[in-house]
Amino acid sequence: MTTIGIIGAGHIGSQVARKAVELGYDVVISNSRGPETLAELVAELGAHARAATPAEAAAAGDFAVVTVPLRSYRDIPVEPLAGKIVIDTNNYYWERDGRIPELDKGEATTSGLLQKHLPTSKVAKGFNHIMAREIGSDGTPAGTVNRRALATASDYPEAAELVAKLYDEFGFDTVNIGTLDESWRVERDRPAYVVRQNAAELTANLAKATRTI
Fold first, then answer.
1. CATH number for the domain including 115?
2. What is the pTM of this model?
3. Residue 165: phi, psi to the nearest 5?
4. DSSP code at position 154
5. Most buried in the list 41, 72, 162, 180, measured by CB within 10 Å?
6. Is residue 213 part of a domain?
């Protein structure tokens, strides 16, 4: 049984956990406030889920989903994630996170910052441009006409492939943007951000994106 370590139990983390458990994954989920604060969520998720600290969730997962506010990305445990694929859902909200000059200037990407923080992990962009509530509701079987598509990006092909596999299980097609240097195309306020689109529409919206806003 594959275990997903989820670091961050907010809107996205909890929705990914719900769908993952439904699909038969084991989930170890954490937040910054302590496992005891997740008792209600874990009770809802059932026997295939447990609460833990971020370091414990990172260690337990065959791969991990990091879904914390960008301002907290340096708090993600490094050593327990060594050698593992890490799916990063982050977006830059300067109103929440404070100004980050390299992002404002278009010199970095949110997932690129996490990759630098986790030099021995394999970071891939995922689940960042869909409303949390739609993660569990908008998926459809493979081959469905006009199936919704989501984007990923990674410097590691195997990481992008894992995201594509997970997307398909969740009910979405995948458009691979390329490396993390290109992941800005699906970040906040760009044409592909939080709109429903099929693979062709997503590809077109990625192409329309401009580097700085």
1. 3.40.50.720
2. 0.97
3. -65, -45
4. B
5. 180
6. no
